[in-house]
Amino acid sequence: MAHYRAVGRLPRQRHTQLRDDDGHLFREELMGEEGFSSDSSLLYRRGVPSAITDSTVWELADQSRTPNHPLKPRHLTLHDLETGTCPVEGRRLVLGNNDVRIGYVLTGTDPSPVYRNAIGDECVYVESGTGTVETVFGTVSYRAGDYVLVPRATDHRWVPAEPSRLYAIEANSHIHPPKRYLSRFGQLLEHAPYCERDLHGPEGLDELVASCRDLTDVEVLVKHRTSAGIVGTRMTYATHPFDVVGWDGCLYPYTFNIEDYMPITGKVHQPPPVHQVFEGWNFVICNFLPRKVDYHDLAIPVPYYHSNVDSDEVMFYVGGDYEARKGSGINIGSISLHPGGHAHGPQPSAIEASLGAEFFDESAVMVDTFAPLDLGEGGRAVEDPAYAWTWAGRGPGVGDDGGPAVFSNS
Q: Was 338 annotated as part of a binding site?
């Protein structure tokens, strides 16, 4: 987004010489989107950013996908998913299509390798944990509730201070605030549920550069695309990628915490777009947060039944009270997948039970995709097979006295 920053050492004018105290000329690198016709940043480096000494295959974790066929809603229990501890290599694919992939990892406290996603931007939701992400632009700190936005092709590494649950949304595109929230010049407007003050960019550039200055032959894991699909390469660089002494522009990583999101409420139940926080090509990201609910005298606070005729809906439940869903298996750490072509909504008894409610205490991250989502190997490993039948209370393997149906507050 067009939110200009200038950090570190810069020449007075762009594309002119910048030298250190010994007369050494820094190398200028333009990092730009959409063929240099959109947002960009200028970086000034000590080393040569294209100087590699080796390139070998990085074998990615299983990227296979299985179609949601026969069609049915799904419940995935991510807290039951065993992952590696590396914030990058330990991710397991949960859901995905050709536009976006959702992965999950419970990290340890060891730093990840330096990593670059050359396919698209990443939006990583921090379910729990704290730490930092070191990048060529400086260091961003993260905490529970943060979205960590990392632009495509940004060299970075995760440094958890404690084990962290990371919900990684990997795009094939750029991820940005919804256009309806932005002025024609890129400023967040007054009706937007957050503003520039809520976005936290990188800091500590000088300290990061100093810590890496003498390191050579540094391995960088690069995720990229070929005609064969998504692959990985281990590239070895002559000098450390974190050698940027200054940069300016509108392209850089940042964090946004859901505590700073201002929910939009109404007299009657509001549709999912009012909860939107980001968007990418063929998908949107929303968050459902603790909020006052509808104030019409005859309002029904839980959602009406709805069919996602153009999209698949993925809800990741990250906080709050889900007593109304007891018996369905939905809990914190759950994912529900409600696919296009299938209506979903509240249990009939939940409608009556919600009448008169003034507040919902719930937190969830939603991804809506406009192309069907497949199940990744991680999603298949932790599926609750009884979920699809919870509205009826009976189905394959479920008796007539099955538990109450689930409802979604989306």
A: no
